[in-house]
């Protein structure tokens, strides 16, 4: 198949590397200088320096060439791999109503929209879906076993995604619960900040397990209120992605929480990180959507207060521990 991947961050680059052995893959980078450097060095020095780009992988900064490569058809697929902040503009720039998947995880800053809500705004007649699940980019680039879920309401797109992506190192499941898969992929980043902060305080594995479990309950409550199926949150994009992002040392959101627990200001943490930690812009949007629906999310509320400077990590933890006892649910 011809596959156009729009966005040359770590995840887009990793997926391009993984698919280039089996397909004709074009990776589009918005920045011409970055694209030129990737062609010369065969590495993405900024976002994924550890991985070598296959000779067969084509790197372009020309959007027209990328759009042409993903021209609609049974033998072509377009995948958007931008951060959530770039999803709306990238979808709007597509030249036709072609089917498209995105890798973006989060709630859009300002609007609080999920990916499928953005797509409904800018491409209401185009089949679309999200590819999500527990996946560190470096491990995907190395060909280590990874399981993902492609959530689409269009059966033809789901089948096309399965045919394009499923292989020796990538196991791809399908789902029709786009809302649930997107909520899982967004909220787990916020919760990973909380777990990272907890671990930064060295409070033990009991506390970590409790926070992950109660965080999963928050995620499911919000998802169901938005129209998702509860069982989705026990799958790859819910529990699976939460466990990976909250406990894995490659997680940018986890590292953000750990550095905040060390007392560093958020601006310094993000500057040193050098990559997007999607939980930071998503957290206030998650809380806003929850409040509008009357959904209680105390862990998310504490994360927002820490990010916005209204509480320290120890103060936020104290608030959670002081909550009134209640039935589990």
Describe the model.
The chain is of the alpha/beta class and 329 residues long. Helices cover 51% and strands 14% of the residues. It has helices at 10-20, 32-41, 63-69, 84-92, 115-122, 137-141, 155-165, 178-200, 205-225, 236-247, 252-261, 266-273, 279-293, 298-307, 313-321, and strands at residues 2-6, 24-28, 43-44, 48-52, 58-60, 76-80, 100-102, 128-132, 146-152, 170-175. An eight-stranded mixed beta sheet has the order 5-2-1-6-7-8-9-10, sandwiched between helices. A hairpin with a 3-residue loop joins strand 3 (43-44) and strand 4 (48-52). The longest helix is centred in the middle third of the chain and has 23 residues, at 178-200. The mean pLDDT is 96.
Q: Span between N and C termini?
A: 45 Å
Strand content: 5-15%
Structural class: alpha/beta
Helical percentage: 40-55%
Broad shape:
globular
Strand order of the largest sheet: 5-2-1-6-7-8-9-10
Contiguous low-pLDDT stretches (5 residues minimum) are none
Number of helices: 15
* Count of beta strands: 10
- Largest β-sheet summary: 8 strands, mixed
What's the quick description here?
The protein has 329 residues and is an alpha/beta fold.
Q: How do the helices and strands line up, and which of them pair or pack?
A:
Elements: E1 2-6, H1 10-20, E2 24-28, H2 32-41, E3 43-44, E4 48-52, E5 58-60, H3 63-69, E6 76-80, H4 84-92, E7 100-102, H5 115-122, E8 128-132, H6 137-141, E9 146-152, H7 155-165, E10 170-175, H8 178-200, H9 205-225, H10 236-247, H11 252-261, H12 266-273, H13 279-293, H14 298-307, H15 313-321
Parallel strand pairs: 1-2, 1-6, 2-5, 6-7, 7-8, 9-10
Antiparallel strand pairs: 3-4, 8-9
């Amino acid at each position: 198949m011809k596959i156009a991947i729009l966005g040359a961050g770590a995840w887009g680059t990793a997926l391009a590397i993984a698919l280039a052995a089996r397909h004709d893959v074009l990776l589009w980078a918005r920045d011409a200088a970055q694209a030129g450097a990737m062609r010369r060095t065969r590495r993405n020095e900024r976002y994924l320096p550890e991985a070598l780009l296959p000779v067969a992988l084509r790197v372009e900064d020309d959007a027209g060439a990328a759009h042409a490569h993903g021209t609609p058809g049974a033998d072509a697929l377009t995948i958007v791999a931008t951060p959530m902040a770039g999803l709306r503009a990238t979808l709007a720039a597509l030249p036709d109503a072609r089917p498209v998947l995105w890798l973006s995880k989060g709630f859009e800053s300002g609007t609080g929209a999920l990916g499928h809500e953005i797509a409904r705004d800018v491409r209401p007649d185009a089949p679309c879906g999200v590819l999500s699940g527990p996946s560190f980019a470096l491990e995907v680039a190395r060909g280590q076993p990874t399981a993902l879920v492609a959530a689409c309401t269009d059966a033809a797109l789901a089948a096309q995604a399965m045919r394009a992506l499923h292989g020796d190192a990538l196991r791809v499941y399908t789902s029709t619960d786009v809302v649930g898969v997107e909520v899982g992929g967004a909220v787990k980043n916020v919760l990973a900040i909380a777990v990272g902060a907890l671990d930064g305080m060295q409070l033990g594995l009991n506390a970590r397990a409790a926070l992950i479990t109660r965080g999963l309950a928050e995620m499911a409550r919000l998802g169901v209120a938005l129209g998702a199926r509860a069982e989705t949150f026990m799958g790859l994009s819910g529990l699976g992605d939460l466990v990976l992002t909250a406990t894995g040392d490659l997680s940018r959101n986890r590292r953000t929480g750990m550095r905040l627990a060390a007392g560093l200001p958020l601006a310094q943490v993000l500057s040193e990180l050098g990559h997007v930690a999607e939980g930071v812009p998503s957290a206030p949007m998650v809380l806003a959507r929850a409040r509008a629906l009357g959904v209680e999310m105390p862990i998310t509320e504490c994360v927002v207060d820490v990010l916005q400077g209204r509480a320290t990590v120890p103060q936020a933890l104290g608030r959670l521990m002081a909550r009134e006892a209640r039935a589990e649910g």
